[in-house]
């Protein structure tokens, strides 16, 4: 085997945590979103197709080497460890380990194409890569990628059909907001119209679409607009998945400048929840039939999740039950959640007595609203 390493990019959607990662492009071709700190110091590059194919070969070779140590359901771990130790570099060992983890603990039928906007690649190159994945890693049943809305709007129906046929299964896209005013505020470089055109084309080609929204990203000033216009996009696109990522202003991001200029006031944790309620209340179950999820710790109520054509009344009633709790109970749950409590408020009794007492004490005695929000923010900083 000539090549021992393949590139690994920095991120993938949480739902692709178990997928093999194939870096097809490097960094982000837009790189201007005010809230995003991910690629700010790096320039965008496409990788030559021949180089990406070599990475796929390396993955396939590691897969073969590793599977040679499997007998039925049993792994010959001493042989795996010896092979790992004999690899020529730390990078090679990291790649071997990634393939091993993918085969043993991950979803050995899924691969995600990195980085931030692989769909910007020329379609014929992408087709060549997707086809090569299918050829060299035939166990792969699901190929997914990120794509920016304005890129998605430019790709032709014909190209989407070809990509679907070659085996592209799902596109993840950070729409963030459906409101043109908010998109401008955060410098997203796309419009509501492009989101709808791009999203519809993806869906019409039979490719699954998973879109991400950030309740709260328009601040108090644009909260209503953010909720209503986002619901409008969801109704028009009918995506397979809507994933909520409650916005929290990150220290060091360019959103601090937007705030300093007086164009953005961060909502309180509760105001953001009310915005989520408004967004969900305006989704039309006759038009949007996919699934909405709160699958990130940054969302206050992770249980707000369901099929948009069936579960909206349930989700609204769940939020309303929480909002109707006595103030102290709400605060206790808020704080517990922001400290990392993974369950809903009905499970709060499961916390250790001493933890509950500590939380209750803080919730009762942090009277000043500003201090309270600062306290919550400090905990949330760990998740963003
Ligand atoms: S498109 Fe995505 S990766 Fe690029 S700057 Fe915006 S949020 Fe960051």
TrEMBL record:
Pfam assignment, any one: Radical_SAM
Can you say what this protein is called?
Radical SAM superfamily protein
GO molecular function ontology, one term from the record: metal ion binding
Specify the superkingdom: Bacteria
- Domain Radical SAM core positions: 14-284
Report the SMART domains cross-referenced here. Answer: Elp3 (SM00729)
Q: Which Gene3D superfamilies match?
A: Aldolase class I
For this UniProt record, the keywords arranged alphabetically read as follows: Iron, Iron-sulfur, Metal-binding, S-adenosyl-L-methionine
Species name: Anaerotignum lactatifermentans DSM 14214
InterPro entries in alphabetical order: Aldolase_TIM (IPR013785), BchE-like (IPR051198), Elp3/MiaA/NifB-like_rSAM (IPR006638), rSAM (IPR007197), rSAM_sf (IPR058240)
Record-annotated membrane-spanning stretches: none
Q: Which cofactor does it need?
A: [4Fe-4S] cluster
